[in-house]
Predict the 3D structure of the following.
Amino acid sequence: MPELPEVEHTRRNLVRWMKGARIAEVTATDARIAKPSPRAFVKALTGRVVTAIDRKGKWLRLLLDDGTRVFGHLGMTGWFEQAGPEPLRFERVGFVLAKKKKRVAYVDSRRWGRLEIARADVAGWTALGPDPLADGIDRALLATKLARRKKTSVKEALMDQKVLAGVGNIQAIEALWKAKIDPRSRAGAMTAKDVAAIAEALKWTIARTLADLAKGDAGAENPFVIYGRKGTPCRRCKTLLVRADLGGRTTTWCPGCQALKR
DNA sequence: ATTATTGTTGGTAG
DNA sequence: TCTACCAACAATAA
């Protein structure tokens, strides 16, 4: 369940569960997930100490005491959780840690995520644009990147990981509502004022989602203002929210108070 | 049975 | 090199 806030939440959990710990045992059998191969993955991690856990956008990076790096992406349905001795449903990778009672399990029903070992940063990591949480949002740079997009919508542009790392479907939807901009607006039509509003809105939705995750009431109802609320009244102007496909992704917005700019 | 799903990647074309 | 578009990947939940 991962966009930037969920991945950051995951990172904070992993810091508590794994940082400084020695990996006593690794289980991995799924070649789609453990790269370059489950066997190489197990061999590289067994006996190592996790020295740092970083995040950029939706990617995680674990540093080990021998210089090995483990890059993790949760795909659409991946997450980490603590587990007892029995494998969890859809568990794909498991870590037994020395001096720790609980294992750490990577669970992923759809298997779109992956965990990959490397000796240096991989392309998926280095190609990312700035991270809104860690790096802040440079408005001039964001304006330049949006201006380059002559045809695509502002929402699709925001979801481009080279523009800003970590913004996904939900965060883009929530931010554009907050910024009062119709998601179908052309990226190239954004004014400096629009860009400033988007930057503020992204900070707002990321902080808000992160705070919800920290409360830890998983399984609670939809915590978002706009996402998944088609047909309900806009919290701001009471117009009923609408939904449509944009670049193949479900998009919800308020036709009453989000201005369309062409 | 049908529909929808919080994401990336690789191909093609321009 | 960069943008734009599309299909593919896979398995669940409503």
User: Anything to note?
Assistant: DSSP finds seven helices and eleven strands in chain A. Residues 68 and 119 of chain A are 5 Å apart (CA to CA). Chain A has a mean pLDDT of 94.
